[in-house]
Amino acid sequence: MSDTIYALSSGVGRAAIAVVRISGPQALPALKHLAGVCPKPRQARLLVLRRSTGEVLDRALVLYFRGPRSDTGEDIVELHLHGSRAVVQAVLAELAAIHGLRPAEPGEFARRALINGKKDLLDVEALADLIDADTELQRRQALEGGGSLLRGKADLWRRMILEVRADLEATIDFSDEGDVADHLDSQAERILTTLRDEMLMALRQAERGEHIRDGFVVALCGPPNAGKSSLLNALAGRDVAIVSPIAGTTRDRIEVSLDVQGMPLRIVDTAGVRESDDPIEQEGVRRAMAAAEGADLALWLSPADAPSAPTHDFSGVVVHTKDDLVQGPSGALSVSAQSGSGLAELIGYLAVTARDRLSGEPVVLTRARHVGAVKDAVSGIQEALYAVDRPEICADALRRAERRMEQLLGRVDVEDVLGEVFSRFCIGK
Amino acid sequence: MFHVKQSQTQFDVIVVGGGHAGVEAAGAAARLGAKTALITFDRANLGMMSCNPAIGGLGKGHLVREVDALDGYMGRCADIAGIQFRLLNRKKGAAVQGPRAQIDRALYRTAVQEAVLETENLTLVEGEVSDLVVAGARVAGVRLADGMELLAGSVVLTTGTFLKGVIHLGDKNWPAGRQGEKPSNLLAERLGALDLPLGRLKTGTPPRLDGRSIDWSAVGLQEGDASPEAFSFLTSRIRNKQVTCGVTRTTDSTHDVVRRNVGRSAMYSGSISGRGPRYCPSIEDKIMRFGDRDGHQIFLEPEGYQSSLIYPNGISTSLPAEVQEDVVHSLPGLERVRIVQPGYAIEYDFVDPRALDPSLELKAMPGLFLAGQINGTTGYEEAAAQGIVAGINATRKAGGQEPVIFDRSQSYIGVMIDDLVTRGVTEPYRMFTSRAEYRLTLRSDNSDRRLTALGHSIGVVGARRAEVFSRREKNIRRGREMLEERTLSPTQGDRFGLELKKDGAMRRGWDLLAYADIDFSALLKIWPELNDINPSVRSALETDAKYSVYEERQRREIEQSRKDRDVVLGEALIYDGMAGLSVEIAQKLTLIRPRTLDQASRIEGMTPAALALVAAHARRNRA
To answer: Where would you tag: which of A43, A54, A412, B92 has the fewest CB atoms within 10 A of its CB?
Structure first.
């Protein structure tokens, strides 16, 4: 008999509502203990929750899902509490006192869903991505990419490799029965080439997938006092939400993650670029240029009061700042962090550029695990193509490619995959 | 050797059946020191080859070498009785080459019988086994049809096609174990009472022809290899004179005859329910399923020096005898051929091998081991390989020792047994090189280095073999050292016509030999002292070197998948009613009881979701 687990499944901190989930055979008795009644499955009830002493804890919306028709496959009770820390703490403390209940471990709800056959490995992986999604684009990627899309693709690839390999194996194992070819025919080579190219395409797309998860990086460059920090602050304060500011040293860089019209953006403020003898400042400049290079888009800020041309190795877009002092050239991007003029246009420009790069077909390979498997499969296929005149080597390369697809699908080496997938979950999922 | 006289006799191991599985099982048990009884209907049939007069082939040749590495009979006897040796896939890499030989049936039978007679601890018993003696839940011996009881710690059944065997020839059929021999129906009923999962399979054999009535000038000829390659690591040279085989092809008129009469074939008229092999199919199958193409090749194989019989490999059939006449007469060169014995199909019971442990012991009946066609396999080599494993483990069981399990990463034997006990069979199981995922490592040339040390440590390998093996191993090690000590720069290589990348790096002789286009003779020009290495060791070194990079890679792969092999699915796991598991998969898991997660992943129809489920449950049980 499995334990009954509980956890706060909504975010930590003050909110209008907090959801506590209880899953397992004791879920319903626990609810009876708190509310004195058992609601019908799949019907919302507003109930008063009390301590065993009779003291009122909260008035909560309560849902009951009877297993196996529930997310985990077990009985689940959801308590939609008022979202104050005090209420949540009090309810959790009361649950802890009930015999047979214990706090859930990270990923335990998902693991139970897996164990009870409600989700498979790829579903669980996609779920982890969905939980991590901050922006609209990330949400869509988690829902549309990975999961079933990946399952379909990987299975198709696996079958294509298998088919070619079956033909090849026949040339090896039936060569004594006459009437079979010596090695792979040109049609099989064409199939492998097509397959390899399709996988390479998926790998390129995966880079976009990574971008969607990690954000589209915009580097702010330019001379000292070009208005980089002001612009960063202005961007962070208008029409965008700060997701997580990460402070570096002032000579290094400052970074802000933003959701701009559904696009995940990471704006990086770099040290001012100028000739300097100060070794520390030189290092800052070197890092600034490296950041510009590593970014998806680099903006060179040129202040209207002291116009500055980008250094010769800069590739990016010039933005004229301090627009309130001197009007920038017409047609160019021009802003004033002070007055806010031009900011909307700049934000629009960033969103459009990011969308161009990040949008497209749903990404198939959303994880390093997926990318690794497909990269190996590509190199296997490539090796097979090199070795067509050595059938047993060719077949072995294809076998390895096929096995990587099976790993991807969770058909083999399951322990490794399970370990990796669950290592990413937090409590309550 | 003696005949059993008493009404009750005690043995360590009893082997039922004197075919290829039976003699290897009995031989292995006897070599391990078990007091062994081998029971057969007729001792004159020991070592009889009931189908084609050939041993070895692709995948099968690997099995013969592995049986040989464990000191079995098959390779040695085939070397004595072989009359045409060919190394198949000679143009391809060593890993997929398969030694094969045409065999003189009479010589082979004599060789096997002599080898069995020479084996100590082995008693031959003639009789029909009618029943098992069971004590408690465990097998304790067998009862013969004449009422005599023989007792033993374990029993190995190798009954081939004799369990409820029925021969079909056109619209006629009759019970038989093989042509001219009665089936073992009493034993089949006894096994039926054990409630084992039984199935039915069929296999066929072609008509036997009188070679004197063949126009040899009208058929193609196939010669053996100029320097025949032996099966056994003990055989230094093949002494037999090599014979020639013929090759002909089916024609349009062959196809017409088959098509017109296919309704009269036992197989096609629906009187056979068992499933036949997809490979080695009957001529009916070939033509009905694969159509005319440009005809199908038929090999005309001599059955022996003293025999005028020819075995036409490729036209196994269950058509009526008179139609078989028309079929063979439609083949070029065979227009006037005389059929000595018509072909037939045989249908028989087999035990679903998923009911076995990898030791080949029946899960439901401790002490009872099964090997050979009774487990749904086809072929002498497959039978012999199972026989040796069953013989080893029956002996260990009788002596209270843990079984020896052959791993997939170690041998074709391991691949075959894992396939059988994990996936079961839907058609007679035949070995192929493509069944072995670590094929580049599991080569027929290194079978001894993979298995003989193991065989020696458990005691199944005799003194002579052990000595030959250790000498060969020492020579290979020594040769490898010589190759590793000698180095050459790219510039020096130029002088010997070797095109090496001019990177200034020194290459060892071993490294050079790993290149696809550098062979041992090239090294002899550079270092004449390598001539001291004997030719068989040279060829072993060359193959080792050429595959070394792939072997290394496969070793890493085996290591990588170790985690799944380390997850033991204990008896505590109850699959029945496990939420999320389909009834079908739960039933399979319950029947097969995979020992590890890795084995479970190979079960037919296993889905990733089900596998994750099992893995997660195993984790929870461990925690």
So the answer is: A54
